[in-house]
Structure formats: structure tokens, C-alpha cells
From TrEMBL:
SUPFAM superfamilies: PRTase-like. The lineage of its organism: Bacteria, Pseudomonadati, Pseudomonadota, Gammaproteobacteria, Pseudomonadales. Belongs to the ComF/GntX family. InterPro entries: ComF/GntX_DNA_util-trans, PRTase-like, PRTase_dom. This is Phosphoribosyltransferase domain-containing protein. It comes from Pseudohongiella acticola.
Length: 158
């Protein structure tokens, strides 16, 4: 379902997946009594990837979650520099590929001490979310949660 959503714009699949995502998000914070994030930060796509796909799946997910929780989305606070797509890379190549890829845009609403939630579609090696979290931590975050539709155990062969 995730692949149909990402690669073919399968919005019926997105609706089903995002309903489950939202339910788990709400249940987690209700059960753990952890304070909700202040901001939702979707993992940005490189502009060329965004043009090719036509949408950012993490941004769509963050916006839908925001409508259900009232947590604001900062869609353009983090930018992604060019780099090789992560799909197909092994764990070591993914980590190397993410070095220096993200930066915080000036003039964003991020302030020190915020609780942030990075939103992504699939986490495989966590290289992307770790790189984004490192940049956010150095800028503003007191706590960073990572939320994704799926955690993949599939590791491409080198």
C-alpha cells in the first residue's frame, strides 16, 4: 500500500494508511502521558524529486495528522540539498549519503526548547531521520520524536 501511495499517487491507500497512523499517534500519547509535540516536521524532498513525484508523501501525512490533532506543520523549516535517492542504497551508503543534506531555513518559527515530531513515510536505516534530527537538535529541539507509516527491515544488498 505504501509503495502504491508513493509511486503511483494511490490516495485511497493513503487514506487507509493515514487513518492507522493517526490512531497510533493518538494512542501513544494518550497511553504514555507524554506531552504532544509542539510542531510536526515532514521530511522534505529534494525539489527535483518533488517535481517528479508531484507531492511530498511526508507532508501529506503531517497535514492530515495536523487536522486531527491541531499540532501545526512547519513544512518549509528544513530544506534538503541534492543527494542520491536513498532507495536501493545499503545502510552504510545511506548514512554517508545523508551527511550535510539538511539545513534549517532562516526565519522559521523554530525556537529553543520545542518538542518536535519528524514525520516520514518509511524508516529503513534511520539515516534520513537521524540527519534531520541532528540539524533540528542543534537549532531548537528539546525533544524529537520520529513518526513513520512503517519501519522496514529490508536492507538492499551491497
Amino acid at each position: 500500500m505504501i509503495r502504491r501511495f508513493k509511486d503511483r499517487g494511490g490516495f485511497p491507500e493513503f487514506r487507509a494508511l493515514s487513518n492507522c497512523f493517526i490512531a497510533h499517534f493518538l494512542q501513544h500519547y494518550r497511553d504514555s502521558e507524554t506531552v504532544w509535540p509542539d510542531i510536526l516536521l515532514p521530511v522534505p524532498l529534494h525539489p527535483s524529486r518533488l517535481r517528479a513525484r508531484g507531492f511530498n508523501q511526508a507532508l501529506l501525512l503531517a497535514r492530515r495528522l495536523s487536522r486531527h490533532t491541531g499540532i501545526p506543520v512547519l513544512a518549509h523549516s528544513c530544506q534538503r540539498r541534492s543527494g542520491t535517492a536513498q532507495r536501493g542504497l545499503d545502510a552504510q551508503a545511506r548514512l554517508h549519503n545523508m551527511q550535510g543534506v539538511f539545513s534549517v531555513r532562516t526565519g522559521t518559527a523554530l525556537t529553543p526548547g520545542m518538542r518536535l515530531a519528524i514525520i516520514d513515510d518509511v524508516v529503513t536505516t534511520s539515516a534520513t531521520t537521524q540527519a534531520m534530527a541532528a540539524v533540528m537538535h542543534s537549532t531548537a529541539a528539546a525533544r524529537i520524536d520520529v513518526w513513520a507509516l512503517a519501519r522496514s527491515n529490508h536492507q538492499p544488498e551491497s
